[in-house]
C-alpha cells in the first residue's frame, strides 16, 4: 500500500500538510499540480522530490491515488 504513487491536485494548506504527513509516514508522494506558484514552492519545501506538473491531467496520468485539495470554488 505504501508503494502506490500519490498525487495532489491543489497545494494549499490542506494539500501541503497532508502530503508532508503522508511522506513522513513512508508513503510515496510523487506528483503535484497547483495553479499558484507560491503554493507549489511551499509544497516542494515540505514534500521534496515531488514532480510538479503544468496541468492537473499530468497528476491524473501519473498517480494511482489522487487527493483533490483545491478550494470548493475551483471544482467545476
Can you give a write-up of this model?
Helix 2 links the parallel strand 2 and strand 3. The chain has about 80 residues and is an alpha/beta fold. The mean pLDDT is about 95. It contains three helices and four strands. The termini are far apart. About 40% of the residues lie in helices and about 20% in strands. The longest helix has 12 residues. Strands 3-2-1-4 form a four-stranded parallel sheet, sandwiched between helices.
Unreliable stretches (pLDDT < 50, length at least 5) are none
Task: Predict the CATH topology.
Answer: Rossmann fold
The number of domains = 1
Under the CATH scheme, the architecture is 3-Layer(aba) Sandwich
Helix run count: 3
The average pLDDT value, as a whole number, equals 94
What string, H for helix and E for strand, traces the elements in order?
EHEHEHE
Q: Which of globular, elongated, flat, extended, rod-shaped describes the shape?
A: globular
Structural class from helices and strands?
alpha/beta
N-C termini distance: 30 Å
Largest sheet: number of strands, sense, barrel closure:
4 strands, parallel
Query: Taking Cα atoms only, what radius of gyration do you get, to the nearest Å?
Result: 11 Å
Write the layout of secondary structure elements.
Elements: E1 5-9, H1 13-24, E2 28-33, H2 37-46, E3 51-52, H3 56-62, E4 65-68
Parallel strand pairs: 1-2, 1-4, 2-3
Summarize the structure.
With 76 residues, this protein is α/β, with parallel strands linked by helices.
Amino acid at each position: 500500500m505504501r508503494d502506490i504513487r500519490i498525487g495532489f491536485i491543489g497545494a494549499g494548506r490542506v494539500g501541503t500538510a497532508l502530503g508532508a504527513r503522508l511522506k513522513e509516514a513512508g508513503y510515496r508522494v510523487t506528483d503535484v499540480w497547483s495553479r499558484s506558484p507560491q503554493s507549489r514552492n511551499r509544497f516542494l519545501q515540505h514534500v521534496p522530490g515531488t514532480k510538479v506538473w503544468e496541468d492537473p491531467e499530468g497528476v491524473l496520468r501519473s498517480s494511482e491515488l489522487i487527493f483533490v485539495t483545491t478550494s470548493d470554488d475551483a471544482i467545476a
